[in-house]
Amino acid sequence: MNYKLDFTPVIDGLPSLLLGCLGTFLLAICGMLLAIVIGIGGVALRDSALKPLRWLVIAFVELIRNTPFLVQIFFIYFALPLTGIRLDPTPTAIIALGINGGAYAIEIIRGGVQSIPKGQMEAGLALGLHKAQVFRLIILKPALRAIYPSLTSQFVLLTLTTSIASAISAYELTSVSQRIESESFRSFEVYFTVTLFYFVISWVMMRLFAAFSARYFKYPVK
User: Are the C-beta atoms of residues 95 and 134 closer than 8 Å to each other?
Assistant: First the structure.
C-alpha cells in the first residue's frame, strides 16, 4: 500500500473546522430549544379535551418518527419556497432539527407526565390552581427530572444529526469538512479528524447536560 498520510490540509483548514464546530453547536442548541417548546406544547395538546387536537399531535409524531430526517429537511427547504417563504440553509436546518427532535420529545415528556401520581394533580386542583398552573408548577419539573436522561440522550443524537444539514449547505462541521476534502482529496485524514471532533462535541454536550442536571434537578439532601 503506497498511500501516505498527510494531515497538512487538515492543519491548514483547522480554523474553518473549529468554526464548523461552533456552527454545529449553534444548530444543535437552537434545535434543542425549539424541540423542547414543541415537546411541551405537544404534550399539552396531546392530552387536550378536543379530539382533533389530540389526533393532530398523534399524526405529527407518527409522521416525523417514521420518515428519514434527510427527507424532512429536503421537504422544508424545497417546499417552503412554493408558499413564498424563502429561508437560508441554517434557519431551515434549525426548524427541521426542532421539528424532528420535538416529535421524539413529545413522547418522552408525555411518558414522564404519565409517571406523576394523579393524587398530586388532584391536590393541586384542590388548592385552587388552574390546570395550566398544575401542569407548570406540580407536574412538569418532576416529569422532566424523571425523563431527563432519556431526553438528553435524544438531544445528543440530535447534535450528531446536524451533520445531515450539510445536504442543504448549512454551515456546520460536516459541510466544512466536505469542502476541505474536495479541495485536498485527503478523505481519510479529513474524516478521521472530523470523527474526533464529533466525539468531543458529544462529550462536551453530555458534560453540560450533567452539570445542568446537578444544578436544577438534584433532589434536596438534608
Answer: no
CA-closest candidate to residue 46, choices 152, 135, 156, 146: 135
Number of Cβ atoms within 10 Å of the Cβ of 177: 24
Sign of the dihedral through C-alpha 149, 154, 159, 160: positive
How many alpha carbons fall within 13 Å on the CB side of residue 93?
Answer: 27
CB 176 within 8 A of CB 20: yes
* Chain CA centroid to CA 167, Å: 17
CA distances from 206 to 99, 111, 211, 216 (A): 22, 22, 9, 15
What letter does residue 172 receive in the DSSP assignment?
S
Query: What is 208-222 written as a DSSP string?
Result: HHHHHHHHHSPPP--
What's the pLDDT tens digit per position in 76-122? 999 888 888 888 999 999 999 999 999 999 999 888 877 877 777 77
Stretch (H or E) spanning 206: helix 187-216
User: Which amino acid appears at position 5 of this protein?
Assistant: L
Q: How confident is the model over 11-57, as pLDDT tens digits?
A: 999 999 999 999 999 999 999 999 999 998 998 888 777 888 889 99
Q: Which residue has the cell 422544508?
A: 76
Q: Where are the alpha helices (DSSP H) in 51-139?
A: 51-65, 69-79, 89-114, 118-126, 131-134
Grid cell, residue 118, equals 394523579
Which residue, 197, 192, 198, 166, is CA-closest to 179?
Answer: 166
Predicted model pTM: 0.88
